[in-house]
Amino acid sequence: MIKAVLSGDMPRSVVLASILGLILFCLALAPFLFPGVRTVDTAARICVFVVLVASYDLLLGYGGIVSFAHTMFFGIGAYGVALASTHLGRGFDALAGGALAGAGVAAALAFVIGLFSLRVRAIFFAMITLAVASAVAVLVSQLSGLTGGEDGLTFQTPRELGPAFKFGDELFGVKLNGKLLSYYLVFTGSLILFLLMLRVVNSPFGRVLQAIRENDFRAEAIGYRVVRYRVAATCLSAAVAALAGSLYAIWLRYVGPDTTLSMEIMIDILLMVVIGGMGTMYGAVIGATVLVLAQNYLQNLMGAAGSAIEGLPVLPQLLDADRWLLWLGVLFILSVYFFPTGIVGRLRRS
Amino acid sequence: MTSPILATEGLTVRFGGHVAVDAVSCAFQTGELTAIVGPNGAGKTTYFNLISGQIPASAGRVLLRGRDLSGQSVSQRTRAGIGRAFQLTNLFPNLSVLENVRLVVQSNAGQGMNLWSMASRHAELTEAAEAILTRVRLIGNRDQTVSELSHGNQRKLEVALLIALDPAVYMFDEPTAGMSVDEAPVVLDLIAELKEQRDRTILLVEHKMDVIRTLADRIIVLHNGALAADGDPATVMASDVVQEAYMGRELEDV
Ligand SMILES: Nc1ncnc2c1ncn2[C@@H]1O[C@H](COP(=O)(O)OP(=O)(O)O)[C@@H](O)[C@H]1O
Ligand SMILES: [Mg+2]
Fold first, then answer.
1. Which SMART domains does its entry note (chain B) (predicted)?
2. A6 at interface of B, judged by CB pairs closer than 8 A
3. Atom 4, ligand 1: which residue's CA is nearest?
């Protein structure tokens, strides 16, 4: 049963299985285990980023294709929901329509980019995605009439997903309101999307992608049309990234360039996939969890540590909360150095 | 004679000013094993590259069952029936031995675009791959990662991938090069078996004269990219051009 759900791709390490089980347990019960606006928000962000990073892993870790346009596809999904909700009114039909349209547009755009550039060389694709993503980011901030520009768009989701909607009193001290439903929409959507991707990478198609990553020349010589597979992987990955964006927009009830399109998020995705372990899918779960937690709590932790050792020379300055990015960088270098195959690769080896 | 399955007409490729394959016209019949010989740099591998489509021809064409293959990609030619084992081992290094062969079987089964089913559940593909591994005596290395295999076993796997593909036209490029004396016979026996089937066309680049003598129905000689001799083994081996050009040396080795 579990084997079928995981598409036969078992964690293959007791420690890894335990960590994954713990993450699943915490995310599934986050509103009850860690009640609080900020913690539930962190949990939702982890859910969305797991899907986003997994869809990037499909491309990079399995297909060996480097793309810098992943946040663009993420953004397309988010803006799709925002625009649909703004113009069609708050409703589940607007959410579904916006999400599907976003995924469709993302896949179509990926198809065009892929068809033009993947024929040439995979590295050409990386450059084109960088150019297109930058152009789209500029376009979004320029077309402020439609997109809200730099301010983004705040919109309303169905009443059932808002804090004002109550469907019961309290359960274990947690208010049964629309925000709770909204969290479970994000959680369930993310879980389904992740399992679907796990299915894809373990399908015959996923095996071909691995073969192409390993040796595209030979993959072609045994009869696989390499370009077709690369383009298909790009489209699929873009569509899933867009759906992750839709979930994120539903959760935030807001979209803006900073939350979806920025280069910083693109770098986060790269860090998450590398730290977690490329070409493993489970690496996305671990990478996203570790990094989102670090981003949210490292600052606080360092602030606390900094004030604890006040009076000592130099150290407090190094631990100043504003230096957290520096420490994140150090963490990244260390993890790449010590775990070149990522956390998952490391755990599977020992 | 029946119409040839494979033919090249004035096939030529130039690299800068250097003509690597020079107007080679040759036809191959089904069931025939043709040895292609010539000194290093004669253009044998390049001739294969032109036939299987890895490099485009500067002039001339390749015909498969009378159909012009110009403009067709490598994968299209592969699916049309031209298969190739490479002189320089060319595998999927970080995948298992079984997975390497399974990928070929899966390609033949047309399952590549299947996104939904679990690859591990396709028992028929796995079994077919295992059968091939048994034939090339690699079944004991089934789950090993290719990069961990010995050189000789990698060469065997190279041949196994072509056998798994089972094309109408087999092209072997020095299949036993770098193999030990006890490994080479496994591969040569497989080639002999294929020849016995009499429904496959085999092109074999090989330096060892004893091998050629036992296996070849016909020999063609390439020299500086051009076709220098073409005929049955006895005649070609005895011909002056071959004796002088380089074969004298090789024959003395035997
Ligand atoms: N891609 C290439 N670019 C330039 N020269 C090449 C290329 N491929 C082969 N050659 C040249 O073509 C000639 C024939 O090479 P090759 O076909 O490998 O010979 P053989 O297989 O008979 O030993 C050699 O001189 C080689 O250097
Ligand atoms: Mg050669």
1. AAA (SM00382)
2. no
3. B15
Tell me the pairing of strands B33-37 and B201-205: parallel
- Nearest by CB to B90, which of A205, A206, A215? A215
- Residues in chain B closer than 8 A to A218 (CB atoms): 86, 90-92, 161
Gap from A7 CA to chain B (nearest CA, Å): 6
Q: How far is A131 from chain B (nearest CA, A)?
A: 29
Amino acid at A350: S
Cβ pair A220:B115 closer than 8 A? no
Q: One digit per residue, pLDDT tens: chain A, 350 residues? A: 788 889 888 888 999 999 999 999 999 999 999 988 899 999 999 999 999 999 999 999 998 999 999 999 999 999 999 999 999 988 899 999 999 999 999 999 999 999 888 877 778 899 999 999 999 999 998 988 888 888 899 988 888 888 888 887 788 878 888 899 999 999 999 999 999 999 999 999 999 999 999 999 999 999 999 999 999 999 999 999 999 999 999 999 999 998 888 888 998 999 999 999 999 999 999 999 999 998 888 777 777 777 777 777 777 777 776 677 777 788 778 878 888 889 999 898 87
User: Residue B229 corresponds to which tokens in the numbers above?
Assistant: 């001799």
Q: How far apart are CA A279 and CA B94, in angstroms?
A: 12
Rounded to whole angstroms, the Cα distance separating B157 from B95 reads: 12
Nearest to B164 by CA among A226, A225, A222, A214: A222
Which atom in ligand 1 lies closest to the alpha carbon of residue B16?
4
Q: What is the pTM of this model?
A: 0.91
DSSP letter string, A38-68? HHHHHHHHHHHHHHHHHHHHIIIIIT----S
Subunit contact A205:B54, Cβ cutoff 8 A: no
* Chain CA centroid to CA A118, Å: 24
Q: Break chain B into its structural domains and give their ranges.
A: 1-81+169-186+197-254, 88-166
Chain A touched by B143 (CB under 8 Å)? no
CATH 3.40.50.300 fits B1-81+169-186+197-254, yes or no: yes
Strands A153-154 and A254-255: antiparallel
Ligand 1 neighbour B41 (Cβ under 6 A): yes
- A52 and A242 Cβ atoms separated by less than 8 Å: no
Q: Cα separation of B227 and A34, whole Å?
A: 79
* Domains, in order of start, for chain A: 2-349 (1.10.3470)
Residue of A nearest to B84 (CA): A221
Report which protein residue has its CA nearest ligand 1's atom 16.
B43
* B residues 110-129 lying closer than 8 A (beta carbon) to A: 111-122
For residue B35, give the nearest of B250, B186, B240 by alpha carbon: B250
Q: Which atom of ligand 1 is nearest to the CA of B41?
A: 19
Write the CB contacts of A171 (distance below 8 Å, at least 6 apart in sequence).
Answer: A32
Which residues on B lie below 8 Å from A211 (Cβ)?
Answer: 92, 95, 103
CB contact under 8 A, B104 and A7: no
Token pair belonging to B73: 């990609």
Picking from A161, A166, A167, the residue whose alpha carbon sits closest to that of residue A179 is A161
Indicate if ligand 1 lies below 6 Å from the C-beta of B49.
no
